[in-house]
Every structure is written in structure tokens, then in C-alpha cells.
Amino acid sequence: GDFYFTKAGANNVHVHNNIVYDNKYGISEQGTTGKGNTYKNNLVTKNTTYNFQLRNGLTHTGTISSEPLFAGYSRTAATPDYKLTASSPAVGRGIATYAPKTDIDGKARGSSIDLGAYQR
């Protein structure tokens, strides 16, 4: 989904290891935001309005702008499969800083962290 800061103040927010793909908006700061926010190692692409819209001179690092290669994604699928295929550019591209120890299914992240909700 999209990642969007609105009018509430946001500072020292760390957006790492995410996949933001095929939405109207990508990652955006709006309203009052600080200079302490970081955007590292995310896969952000094919968001129709923009992929990034950051404020205060902030930049993103380690961004991948390629298809995520989900196991079974389709905009029209009733239950899309967001797990990564072996050839996904998101496999092993995450960073340990602020990463949860397990993925959404409880699988350990280990030393090679994948982007997104699921560890391959």
C-alpha cells in the first residue's frame, strides 16, 4: 500500500525494508515533518502519481525501482500472494536496523533480510 504522512507532526520515523508497488501514491511526507525521518532499502515503483515526495531536503537510499516479482500478484486477484519469488530483487536487500526478527507469518528473518512482509 501507500505510505503517506499527513498533517500530524512526524519526526524520527524510519521507513526501511518495505515494498510500495502499484498504488496511486508511493511514499510521501505531507504537513509538518522533521529532518530525522529516514527512508532506506525500500522497493518503490509503479505508483502512478509519484514514487517519493519527501520534504526538508530528505532523500531515500538503497531504493530498488524494479518489479518486486511477487509469487501471485494481480490487481484483480481476490487474495494476491505477496510472497517473493526466488528471483525477486527484494530478496536479501533489507537492513537489520529497525527490522522485526520475524516476518508476518512468524518466520525468522535471519542474517539475510528480505524487503516486504514475507521472508523467503
Automatic annotation (TrEMBL):
NCBIfam families linked to this entry: choice_anch_Q
Protein name: Right handed beta helix domain-containing protein
UniProt-listed SUPFAM superfamilies: Pectin lyase-like (SSF51126)
Organism, scientific name: Massilia timonae CCUG 45783
